[in-house]
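Worked problem 6 (solution included).
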Amino acid sequence: MKTGQTIRRFAGHEAFGVNCAKFLLGHANEESVVASCGFDRNVKFWDLRSNRQHEAMETVGQFSDAAMDLTLSGGSKTNEVTACSIDGTVRTFDIRKGELRVDTLLGQQPITAIENSSDDKLVVATLPKTLALMDKTDGEVLQTFSGFNNDQNVVLRATFTPDDRYVVLGDAIGDICVWDLLSNETSNAQPTRIPNAHAKAVSNVSFHPAASSSSSKSNNNNNNNNDDDTAAKRSKKHVMLSCASDGLAKFWS
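Solution. The predicted structure is:
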């Protein structure tokens, strides 16, 4: 990070390209393994301590189309990886036990992005016109969300706020859409919208976990507020970063 120089290269997804790569934390938070997925339909695991830079320690190639994104479980399930594909499936791998579970969402529509909730109980999957909230335990789709614009068929990415109360997505016309998971609407719920957040399609939104965590603790210590006031204050103190095709990155609170 200090010099910006390439230390090592891991080649194995051939010329198809890599769509996502993330560190898989081991014991004592040691970042010893990288998980990656790509257009070659494979999920690969790379041992950072090995000198074999052209040979993955494990390859899972059971998708029938491009593997687009993956997300890693935290807490006690550090060996669990969930990946999604254009073939419409979500596959959860336990690399320690060698177990695999396959879930098919909403009639095998392409899935371009996937994200865990912070408590590792839920997954939000991004499809071209719909978001699907899935129970990680059994693969059941609990809620669907619509109302965002993707007429340009760009790759969008939904995420959770750090308190898991809201799902947030930047859409193809530059709006940021927010769905409240505690709402009584359970199917095709329409979002609250931040209009014209960017001039072009929003590539990604993410949240600062430390800032949100401290805000949550502060709210929890204030017992004089009712539940609605506490939730409102917590949501206002989330620190969000968005980036878009207009070339801008913006901070929001």
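Discussion: The helical segments are 209-220, 227-236.
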